[in-house]
Amino acid sequence: MEKIKCTIERITYQNPENGYSVLQSTIKGYREKQTLVGTFHEVTVGAVLTVSSR
After folding, report:
1. Distance CA 11, CA 44 (A)
2. What's the farthest any 2 CA atoms get from each other in the chain?
3. CB-based contacts of 17: which residues, under 8 Å, 6+ apart?
4. I need a surface site. Which of 5, 31, 45, 51 has the fewest CB within 10 A?
5. pLDDT tens across 1-54, in order?
6. Can you tell me the distance from the alpha carbon of 54 to that of 41, in angstroms, rounded to the nearest whole number?
7. Which helix (DSSP H) or strand (DSSP E) does residue 6 occupy?
8. Tell me, what's the pLDDT at 52?
9. Which residues of 14-39 are buried (b: 16+ CB within 10 A; e: fewer)?
10. Which of 52, 54, 44, 53 lies closest to 3 in space, CA to CA?
11. What's the chain's Rg over C-alpha atoms?
């Protein structure tokens, strides 16, 4: 499983009840912003996350 470190640039959608979110992030080595979709509780713009996929 690959882990990626990213910085949250924009929150497109966030459900405060269950944490389901659509986030725009920057990832070192990628030119364009990347979209993250999943459950992220209490994430804010500027937060640095380490994420992995299943």
Report:
1. 8
2. 33
3. none
4. 31
5. 788 899 999 999 999 999 999 999 999 888 999 999 999 988 999 999 998 877
6. 18
7. strand 3-14
8. 86
9. beeeeeebebbbeeeeeeeeeebeee
10. 52
11. 11
Q: Give bridge partners of residue 5 from the DSSP assignment.
A: 50
Polymer length in residues for the chain: 54
Q: HSE of 45 in the Cβ direction (CA atoms, 13 Å)?
A: 6
Distance of CA 14 to the CA centre of its chain: 11
Residue 35 tokens read as 């979209």
Q: What is the pLDDT of residue 50?
A: 93
AA letter at 19: G
